[in-house]
Amino acid sequence: MIRYGEIFLKSEPVKRRFISMMVKNIGLTLEAEGLSHRIEAPRGRILIFGDEPGRIAEVAARTFGVVGASICTVTTADIPGISAAAEERAERCILPGESFAVRARRSGVKGFSSQELAAAVGSAILNRIPEATVDLTTPDCEIFVEAREFGGLVYDEVIRGPGGLPYGTQGEVMGLLSAGIDSPVASWLMMRRGCLMVHVHMRGGRFGGADMEGTVLRHHARLSAWISAHPLDLLVVDMEPFFEAITALEEPRYRCILCKRFMLRVAGILARERGAHALVNGDNLGQVASQTLANLAVVAPAASIPVLRPLIGFDKEEIVERARAIGTFEAQPGDIGCAIAPRHPSVAAPATTIAQIEEKIGVDDLAVRAAGTVRRYRAKNGVIEGEAQTPGFGVSPPGRSHRG
Ligand code: ATP
Ligand code: MG
Q1: Distance 282 CA to ligand 1 centre (A)
Q2: What are the domain boundaries of the chain?
């Protein structure tokens, strides 16, 4: 049984559309895993029937929009039917000397309240296992029962899902993947929120770390495993000519601002070409010099479409924790630094100076040229297909500065 969260609050037609999208995503994911199944979506719940309920629950519980998955017994929607199944579960779940609680819900069923249901099921369990004790606050074992229009459900475990909205219910966005910890988390958060994702990585060539592209490809592949029903594209763009232009300038301290603006400019061009509605990046307030409030304000206007920054208010610890849970955290990502980050980057670049420098290097031309260098990598189910050469997998020594 799949439980969803805030989709409940939507209007009927929106709810129907979101649920059918989630059912489709779950179905395709189970198919990709070779799990035969049948899905029903009665009011309030999604039910999946199959021979391998354990694996089905585990796989389905990773789908965006899913709040929880449970392996259930389906019964009739009345107290005797639910009690009988609950007693059986209790016998398996409550060990000698343990306490239990019954958690009951009722929706669209008349004749008893959820409290009455809980009390009836509780005494049935005590009848069957007289040595068990009831503890409603910190029970050793919880028995969940639900009486719904379509029948009764009995279960004793909930596998937590990622929540969010079904993938594909929001528009397309373009996520900027660096090779660092933050950007994959930012991308995951927007995918979880239902956005169709396309990734873009700006290749620094000889100015970027040797392991950047390999690391980005790994992150990209891992993120694709969260939406196994869908392919996920990564566009790789060559930024080397831009770096040549800015390293020829006298003043190094604006490099990071120029670089971040250039990335947004190029990503904006690519996003517009595809009809994507917004860019997503891993900006995090105060993390590095280019992410002071003053500099974010100078960088932002370079994008021709909105920039979403889901990590802006996170602490680094929280981002790392998320990255671990998502599967993109790497303790030793290798050489992913920038070779030309200045020792003392400006924390408040003057917008007019930046505009003058950009004019001088012919930034518009450079951006259009960069946007013309796209190579595409398609990932599905955690694997890169197509142009699948994954360079730079080795770990090389650190040493490059990484100030951003
Ligand atoms: P991350 O933020 O992913 O840990 P980082 O901290 O090195 O990497 P920042 O310098 O903080 O990156 O850059 C802020 C954001 O800009 C990144 O989160 C990412 O979205 C985007 N970005 C940075 N470098 C690149 C790149 N080479 N290609 C694409 N996007 C990039
Ligand atoms: Mg960062």
Answers
A1: 6
A2: 2-71, 74-156, 172-388
Atom of ligand 1 nearest to the CA of 184: 3
Question: Which residue of 173, 174, 176, 181 sits with most ligand 1 atoms within 8 Å of its CB, as the best mutation to test the pocket?
Answer: 176
Strand, helix or coil for residue 65: coil
Q: Where are the alpha helices (DSSP H) in 312-380?
A: 316-326, 351-361, 363-371
2-71 and 172-388, same CATH topology = no
Question: Which ligand 1 atom sits nearest the alpha carbon of residue 280?
Answer: 20
Contact 1 CB / ligand 1 (< 6 Å): no
How many C-beta atoms surround the C-beta of residue 13 within 10 A? 8
Could you tell me which CATH class the domain 2-71 is placed in? Answer: alpha beta
Cα within 13 Å of Cα(229), Cβ side = 21
List C-alpha distances in Å: 389 to 100, 183, 312, 392.
54, 22, 33, 10
pLDDT band (50, 70, 90) for residue 386:
low
Structure tokens given for 281: 């990046």
| Structure confidence by residue, pLDDT tens digits, 257-302 | 999 999 999 999 999 999 999 999 999 999 998 999 999 999 999 9
CATH number of 172-388: 3.40.50.620
**Which letter does DSSP use for residue 157 in this model?**
-
For ligand 1, say whether the CB of 345 is within 6 Å of any of its atoms: no
pTM of structure: 0.92
**Residue 295 Cβ contacting ligand 1 at under 6 Å:** no
* C-beta of 214 in contact with ligand 1 (< 6 A): no
What radius of gyration do the chain's Cα atoms show? 26
Ligand whose nearest atom lies closest to the CA of 255: 1
Q: Say what percent of the chain tops pLDDT 90.
A: 92
Residue 322 DSSP class: H
- In this structure, CATH architecture of domain 74-156: 2-Layer Sandwich (3.30)
